[in-house]
Specification:
The chain contains 6 helices and 30 strands. It is mainly beta and 496 residues long.
């Protein structure tokens, strides 16, 4: 995890719209461009932040324990960040022009539940009616792409990464929107801007997400929710950084190397807690957790920690039974279905393939990324592995020949924070920190579907049978909620 201190700069930020999009627009669209440009040119001394130094996302979503995402807008909106990331700043603060521009579009969502029928009426998945304002929204989305903060743990040329990427046809429709539930009760809580894998799906109707009150379950078919691990049952100052739900087990890890474990069938409020290793308040975040089964059939949790140790927790005994140290912080890990191979990514430009049965477990290094990675996943057959990096790309490798990636897939807004294969192996999902979730056809890696919205991504996950895709949106300005997409009948079959 990137821990470099942000260097203060007195330079003025300058952002512009794509000239190719500005030309030839109607008078109303031209007014939008002028308003955006005026916001950009507003003097820095007029920018104010109300409420102190709360960590706020670029769209206004608040990161931090106990926050409900509420904030106030002054004459402008300045967004400080205390995450230690390298970004563009002025006077020690990151000036949030996105939030300024968003004020032009800020209005109450017309709907609290959106269905496919509402989409046909001109609403979007967040309940806004954009019919008649399509050009203005397109300009705004383009603006968001250009000014979204880019965090770099290792300095690199983004354009050089884009030149290596596959040219993707993004006009496909693999999953159709079915419905979304909106409101604060469906808002995913994001405690760290780099950790977004906070949604788990165990079936088409059991979706779990991290809420300010704890871990909640959402049933999209009944449009209902319930709390399965209450925050009040967690240890004091427990800030959830990662979670996983599998085989009736709910696991949550925090900033201090601690964990909470509960059964979906246990008495309400029954939560076991402990530590995965020596507590280091500043450097032992549980960055990612995944559930698995050992060769002996025992359930375990594989925890990737910021201290650079990959630990395996035996769920039955609540003991750490294996620990593999690394020279860098571990941000994510994945395991093949047969538990023979692990992929580990972190504060290194290379990913590592491990066989923990061997005395020297490292079997290969996956190169190609130019910045730290925060996501990885194996295909169901274990042949492919995907990694997601802060260099704005996801890369796909064949484990039988890992020297070079099969493809580099670039996003629009920022780092690829989540990657996942569908259970049938037909699709690869890659989620950016805001606004976009991409679904790629594994057979070609050149055909994709882009799911677009406005706001920070709190998580995204396939259902185990691949019939559904769930996306979490956590945004204070444009609305929060959980959205469900169902597989389209005409989706192509992958040739695995």
């Amino acid at each position: 995890m990137n821990r470099r201190r942000q260097e203060e700069s007195d330079s003025t930020l300058e952002h512009g719209l794509d000239d190719g999009l500005v030309g030839g627009l109607d008078e109303g669209a031209g007014d939008v461009v002028q308003q955006l440009q005026l916001l950009i040119q507003e003097p820095l001394e007029n920018l104010q932040l109300d409420g102190g130094r709360t960590d706020v996302g670029s769209n206004g979503s608040v990161f931090g324990e106990g926050s409900e995402g509420s904030f106030q807008l002054g004459s402008g909106m300045a967004t400080p960040t205390g995450n230690g990331a390298v970004d563009t700043s002025a006077g020690g603060h990151t000036w949030d022009f996105l939030a300024n521009a968003a004020q032009m579009f800020e209005r109450a969502s017309e709907l609290k539940e959106v269905t496919a029928a509402d989409i046909r009426k001109g609403y979007d998945m967040q309940g806004y009616q954009w019919r008649g304002h399509e050009i203005q929204k397109r300009l705004y989305m383009t603006y968001r792409r250009q000014v979204y903060p880019q965090y770099q743990g290792v300095a690199h040329d983004v354009q050089a990464v884009r030149k290596q990427a596959v040219c993707v046809d993004n006009t496909a429709t693999f999953y159709n929107f079915r419905q979304s539930s909106l409101g604060d009760e469906y808002r995913g809580q994001i405690n760290h801007f780099q950790l977004r894998d906070l949604i788990c799906a165990t079936s088409d109707y059991d979706v779990y997400y991290h809420h300010a009150d704890g871990v909640h379950s959402w049933n999209p078919w009944q449009r209902s929710r319930r709390c399965v691990m209450r925050r009040s049952a967690m240890p004091r100052a427990f800030r959830v950084s990662s979670m996983c739900v599998d085989s009736g087990i709910v696991f949550a890890g925090d900033y201090r190397g601690r964990y909470c474990l509960s059964s979906l069938w246990a008495e309400e409020g029954a939560v076991a807690d402990g530590t995965l290793g020596p507590i280091d308040i500043d450097n032992d975040i549980v960055n990612h957790a995944t559930s698995g089964t050992s060769r002996g059939g025992a359930r375990h949790i594989l925890a990737a920690q910021n201290s650079g140790v990959l630990r395996q927790l035996d769920v039955q005994r609540l003991e750490v039974v294996d620990a593999v140290p690394f020279a860098w912080a571990i941000n994510c890990s994945a395991t093949t279905r047969d538990a023979t191979l692990d992929c580990v990514v972190g504060d290194s430009v290379d990913a590592v393939l491990l066989d923990r049965r061997r005395q020297r477990p490292e079997v290969a290094r996956l190169s190609g990324h130019r910045d730290f990675s925060f996501a990885c996943a194996f295909s169901p057959d274990g042949r492919l592995v995907a990694t997601g990096s802060q260099d704005l790309s996801a890369r796909v490798y064949d484990v039988r020949w890992p020297q070079q990636p099969l493809a580099a897939l670039c996003g629009y807004m920022g780092a690829m924070r989540i990657v996942s294969f569908s259970g049938d192996g037909r699709f690869l999902m890659a989620a950016e920190p805001a606004d976009y979730v991409h679904i790629y056809d594994v057979a070609t890696l050149g055909l994709a579907q882009d799911i677009e919205f406005m706001g920070e991504t709190s998580g995204a996950a396939f259902s185990p049978d691949s019939n559904c895709l769930f996306v979490g949106i956590s945004d204070a300005l444009h609305g929060s909620g959980l959205a469900e997409f169902t597989a389209a009948a005409e989706a192509p079959c992958a040739l695995l």
